[in-house]
Structure prediction request, 664 residues.
Amino acid sequence: MVPDALPQQLQYTEADIQRLAPRDHIRLRPGMYIGGTDAHALHHLIYEVVDNAIDEALAGRCDEIEVALHEGNAVTIRDNGAGIPVGPHPELGVSTLQVVLTEFGAGGKFDNKAYKVSGGLHGVGVKAVNALTAELTAEVKRDGALWRQSYIEGEPVGEVENVRKLRRGEAKGTSIRFTPDYSILDENAFDYEMLKARFREMAFVTRGVHITLRDERLLTPESQLPRQVSFYFEGGIGSFVRHLNRGKATLHEPLYAERSIEHSPRDDREPFHIGVEIALQYTNSASTQEFSFTNTINTPDGGTHITGLRSAITSVLNRYALSKGMLKEKEPNFSGSDTMEGLTAIVSIKHPNPQFESQTKVKLLNTEVRSAVSQVVAELLSEYLELNSREARRIIQKCMMSQRAREAARKARELVRGGPSLLESTTLPGKLADCSVRGQDAEIFIVEGDSAGGTAKQGRDRRFQAILPLRGKILNTERASMDRILDNNEVKAMISALGTGIGADFTLDRLRYGKVIIMTDADVDGSHIRTLLLTFFYRHMCPLVESGHLYIAQPPILGLSNGKATRYIYPQAGKTEDELLKGALKQYKNPDKIQVQRYKGLGEMNAEQLWDTTMHPEDRTLLQVNIEDGNKADHIFRTLMGAEVLPRRLFIQKNARFVRNLDA
Prediction:
């Protein structure tokens, strides 16, 4: 029983219940509003403001959006929309601009008067941005004047100010400039390439709108021209599909449809229309690319619109193949994975009242969207197959190849070593030097070569570090079929050691180690082996990468001995080995007396050196592998590791001038 008199620290009274103001709640719990405090959350601040400008474009009041990155990690977002109203709010009595930027739940998107459809729904986004900035300045051009108001940590500094009259012909619009508050957010800088990819998507989905990204942070006395890119697409998501499939062998021209589907709710609500825009194209690739948008907002976790797309495609292709005798009645139908392999598909819907999983809008939940998307996809694909028999046969043959490959992979898994499935076997590879612990605290080093593997086994901490040496270069899994992949001894060893399975059988919960560390030589061959391993993990164990379990070790390339003391030099991007050596020797009074050892491979270090430089948790440097842009990652792997020679040659020709000979 709980005693009547509890110690002071265990008591729970009315005084323990706190009521936070909305601004304070945002600053205390930013994850509820922008998804966290990391780099993705930082960029989400920009996306929230840009989404408001896109809403102006959807309402027909804006066709130009500009994002400028400034020194000090400040950013300005401008549009030529109608401008946020600045007059006194009829209920609150203060400027409506201040209401929009500070009052939780205030906004113009709760009905369908000012905006028929919009990405902003809750009246939260721009308030969260304001609350999470060190300083923010809003400028509005409307009502014949330029208006301005500034904020510190979400609190207004003075009233809205009438700065000047607008010049004749001067465009209306809103400008928001802010600097993130790094006392709350992690210290990260805005990533130009990440923003560039996001705005390209937005321009494809919101056709007819100019979106410009300018980076003013790189200005120097020698170069006064900022890095800048502008996007404008009339072709919409049809052009987006062509962009995604550049360099691929395609089976047909992109299919495109745009429809407005009426939905009649079962309750007393008025019927409304759902705008559905679809673009899709099959390629010879083994990968699938799906993009989904709701009111131009990217929904990376999909939702009911993606579910409708998949079910319609699978149903239509099975029905067509059966009707043409390409599938027999007694044969198994195509599965969803069979019909989606090689497909690039984009679905963009416009909904007057979308329901998302969270404030960050990563997944759509409206059930009525599934049937609307299925109807449009079924009509589009059915009509195309009937009118284009040659292309239809190619698509069905692609699905049949996928089905046969899936069946072959299943049989290969069952026949590996003549026993139970490799993916279900608990037998560990004989070359694995395992550790004592399991789970998050354990780590496995995948090491290049038996020699380096032997050194690593001697130098490791046997309690939590496992060593798996690989012999030579593994199979290029970008080009190989699943049965060939599962027949490769080095791949089988990795699958057995990690315990997760691969592909559709991958289960992260079965991972035996918290860190999977690729450790290869710091030379060209080591880089090649590392690339082959990254290809395997990305294509067949992608959840391992996405969950942050994959790392790359950073061994030194030089050792400088001055008596008993040894200093190690590690590779640096853009610097040759000789440049690193020259810079390091300058720090010694008598550089001629320094003994230099060049490590061309892990096997050239003894066990103690390898532990001190590369394996000791407190002294080593590990690079965590993550996926910032899935589309870009897919394109790079396909270009550099795929079967097509021309895209790889063009990539090398384009980027050869940036390569420096690190072995010079």
Q: What stands out?
A: The chain has four domains: 22-231, 236-413, 420-555+599-627, 630-664. The mean pLDDT is 83. The radius of gyration is 29 Å. The CA atoms of residues 1 and 338 lie 60 Å apart.
